[in-house]
Every structure is written in C-alpha cells, then in structure tokens.
Amino acid sequence: MEWSEKKEDSASASASSSWVGEGLGGYNNENVKRARLNSTLSALLDDPILADVPKKPSLSDVDTLISFELGSAMRISILKLDSTSFDVVVMNSDTVKDLKLAIIKKVNQMEQSQMGHRQISWKHVWANYCLLYHNEKLLDESVALQEFGIRNNSQVQFVPFIAARQHQKHRRRKKHRFFHGLNKLS
C-alpha cells in the first residue's frame, strides 16, 4: 500500500509542477506582464496621494512631479476668466513659453477627460489673452518666470489682451488677376 501511495503522490507532484511551470511561462508572457503593470499603475493612480499625477503620465510629467517634491519645480495656480483655477507644475528655471506649454497641456488633458476630443485654437487664445502676475503682463516668452517674481504657489491669471497696432502686422492680400498678363500683350 505504501508503495502505491508514493507512486500516486509523485504523479500528482509532477502534475502540479507542470502546472506551476505553465503558470510561470504564462507570467513571462509580455501581455500578462503588461496587463499586471497597467492594473498596478491604475491602482496607484487612484490613490488620493497621487491625485496630481495625470491618468496617462509621460516620463516628463513624472520627472516634473518628482522635481516638485524635491524642490526644484514649482506649482503655479492659473486663474481663468470664469474665476475657476487649475494648477500646473513647471521647473524653477522655466520661461513664460514653458508655462504656456504647460497650460496648453493641462487644459487639453482636462478637456479630453471631461468632454472627449475637442480642439482649442491656442493661436487665437494667445492673440486675444495674456497671462498676468501682480499687474505685470507676461508678454516676453523668453523671460524666466523667476524674473517676474513667480515662485511656488503663485497665482497667474488670464486677462483679455489686445496687441498694439505695431505688433499686429496684417498684410493685405494681393489680388491675383488671371488675365492681368494677357492685357499687356494685346
């Protein structure tokens, strides 16, 4: 009896080891790894502590947030015209242009999550509105934010802005005359 019990035990052990081997082989599969990584990442992103991380973060987003935690980046609150605000995180050495790019990225993410795909004409926005900090318009895109006195937890607001006539160079469209050259020949 003992010998047959040992034989059955060894048969079940080899069957279970082959199942474990298949399970490990399945774990090494790229799709399974990717699914586990995505589920772990989504569980982490649902944590309230990580609420400032976007749903589909890029490497630069994560790098900027790490820099913010280390003190080499700053969070700026952007006050919209409807008195609502949102926050963007930029590096301490960034310029006005970098702030505008961060605003564009953040607004596009918010619009995508709330309303689906929607296109905003940022050329129109920046032509008619500008950013204002302590009654100083941030018009020169190459100037560093710190030169305006912008620090961590500063509030910048959108204000209507009409460029001076000298900055707006509207060229008159040339009239294309198809028969213009033909009249000279006759």
From TrEMBL:
Name of the molecule in the record: SNRNP25 ubiquitin-like domain-containing protein
Swiss-Prot/TrEMBL GO biological process terms: mRNA splicing, via spliceosome
Stretch list, region Disordered: 1-20
Compositional bias per record (Basic and acidic residues), positions renumbered to this chain: 1-10
Residue span, SNRNP25 ubiquitin-like domain: 74-159
Positions of transmembrane segments: none
InterPro entries from the UniProt entry: SNRNP25, SNRNP25_ubiquitin, Ubiquitin-like_domsf
PANTHER family found in the cross-reference section: U11/U12 SMALL NUCLEAR RIBONUCLEOPROTEIN 25 KDA PROTEIN (PTHR14942), U11_U12 SMALL NUCLEAR RIBONUCLEOPROTEIN 25 KDA PROTEIN (PTHR14942:SF0)
SUPFAM superfamilies: Ubiquitin-like
Organism: Beta vulgaris subsp. vulgaris (Beet)
Signal peptide boundaries: none
